[in-house]
Amino acid sequence: MGQSKCTGYLAPVDFEADLLVELTLLGITILETHGRLFLCEGEAQDVVFAQDTWHDVEKINYISIGNAAELLRERANRWSHFSINNHRRAELVLEKVPSVKIKRYNFLDPIPTTDIGVFSLLSESLMIVSKRTNCPLPFGEINFNEDKINPPSRAYLKLWELFTLYNFKPEAGMRVIDVGSCPGGWTWVLQTIGCEVVSVDKAPLDPKIAVLPRIDFRKESAFGLKPQDIGKLDWFFSDIICYPDKLLELVTRFRDSGLVDNFACTIKFQAPTDFETMFKFKAIPGSKIVHLSCNKHEVTWINLKQHE
What we know:
Blueprint: E1 6-10, H1 16-25, E2 30-34, E3 37-41, E4 52-55, E5 58-61, H2 65-73, E6 79-81, H3 87-95, E7 104-105, E8 117-121, E9 126-130, E10 132-133, E11 143-144, H4 156-164, E12 175-179, H5 185-192, E13 196-200, H6 207-210, E14 215-218, H7 227-230, E15 233-238, H8 244-257, E16 260-268, H9 275-283, E17 287-290, E18 298-304
Parallel strand pairs: 6-8, 7-11, 12-13, 12-15, 13-14, 15-16
Antiparallel strand pairs: 1-3, 1-4, 2-3, 4-10, 5-9, 8-9, 16-18, 17-18
Helix pairs in contact: 2-3, 4-5
């Protein structure tokens, strides 16, 4: 790949097309692709539809499994293997280096903080190597020991991932709002960590969620809410199903009120993906947008007051 910097962007499963469009819109030159992996020219940039980002990618020739392992050990202390070609051969290489074990986590388990490297074999003599990736877990993905009893839907996993892997989390006692809350998956998570939850939806919460303490349920449309009627909030949460521009209007109303400190919202897309509105969210000071490993055709926008 010559002397210039090369970065790898790994698309979420089935979202290669979205990553391709985003890279193109950002003016990033794509050098080659290998399934979900896009190798691009230049330093790493903030790319939303990259589940993980590989820094300083190298193409390295190797002469044997042992030699490949030696070359990896020279570069980093922890490795994962992303399979492209020669899968069995690559697994034999992985056995010879310190590797990252893929495991299931409990909610709010500590996440490793040390960097991990990743490699892929292109052939029996050529491999792609990155000694540092964005995420401390392989491929930017986290798997949980799921709670199959208490939450009324699997939407709760989005907040579990946001709070556990990304460490964006309200503290116990904080006053938060969850708009479009039915059947109550996000309200349930927020209640379990000790928040005072204003839960808003035209449809009722699941009965087992509605009876939990510290939940103030309001049966009304999220889009008709007036910030002054809600009062001061530490966090604004939304997993509501709506067009991205309507969500932007709603959060702008609450941001402009000065009554909300932090936001965490799912931006849900239809086809085609609304990159224009996504970039408007991204341009708001203090913002970060990620594609959670449990997100589908949607992304998660976080806006923190202390980062402005």
